[in-house]
Amino acid sequence: MSHKRVVIGVATVDGCYFLESDVGRGEWVRRGPYLSGESVNSLRYDVHSGSLYAATLTEGVFVSRDLGGAWKLSSRGLHVRKAWTIGVDPHKEGRLYVGTQYGHLFRSDDSGASWVEVTSLYDAPHRMEWGVDWGMGTLGLAIHTVKFDHEREGRFYIIASGNGVYRTDDDGESWKPLRSGLLEGCQAFNQRSQAGAGGGESLETHLRTVHKCAHKIALSGRDPSRLYQQNHCGVYSSQNSGEAWYDRSPDDEHRHGFGITVTDDDTVYTVPAYQGICGEHNSCVRGELKVYRGRRGGGVWEALGAGLPRSVHTCVLRDALSSDSLEPPGVYFGTTSGEVFASVDGGDSWRRLLGGVSRIQGVESFVVD
Fold it and tell me: Where are the transmembrane segments (predicted)?
């Protein structure tokens, strides 16, 4: 009998929660809240040490050695405490990276006990275009994503909001922007192009301003040279570690979204959202909460909504969509209206696991012994 457990970590603007089940994923037990009062943006589990890390927008990094029961502040050396994401290096025990506001990246070689800034990022191509911060959207300038190639040591990816995906092949000593094949601007397919309130900039101008705004990337577990990206203008895939990107978007109305995840059979999942005007930005398209499933790496798309609510005003943020490594894979997401949904049949049906909590910013699923 397997003693493995599936854990879903739920990061909210007011602490975090955990949902646990056996590998059958039929019954779930809720724990939490923990870290009450902290705006937890994302959670990351280290399979080597069993440690759990929380990136918060309030105090930086927290660490738990008991799967979230007790937490300790772990931000020594972070001179920016608004932390968006944490990456765990699968090749070097104890090495972590944290991305923060204002485009900073920090590294730890002692499991988060201390941090030093990765200053090579100041010399990254196009860095002078980044500025200090920018006012579009809710994020501003931040390193919000760190993803590792699990086969090639020294290679990982970051996303600088508004400036796209970068790759390093030498543990962060140098950086390469990965923009080939991406649109230099995009039409808002599900919004009117009009001036903002008070004669502000038009939607078209807004989209051209943020055309390099990559929202999330996911690496294939089967072949990490295959990447998938959800950005402001659509869903893209790369077969060569980001050297070139190809448009794999669903229909025009459902191109835009925030989170993206890929299961081990190279099935891609996204949750579309309106693009454009703030009155409807960050809301599911036409009030229908649907997950889009792209089989064969996004070659064929299907809209999935069985068990999901209709006529809602909610959104799934960039860190709030996740999948596990079991067979069949589980897919999980959380919404800005404080609900968590799960599917263990490839998205054909969904059930609500959690509700009534604060705005959900991140969902992390992992399997523990």
Answer: none
Of the candidates 343, 338, 342, the residue with the CA atom closest to the CA atom of residue 360: 338
Mean pLDDT value across the chain? 88
The one-letter amino acid at 60: G
The pLDDT score that the predictor gives to residue 200 is 46
Written as six digits, the tokens of 273 are 């959202």
Structural tokens at position 16 = 């975090």
Tens digits of residue pLDDT in 97-137: 999 999 999 999 999 999 999 999 999 998 887 765 554 44
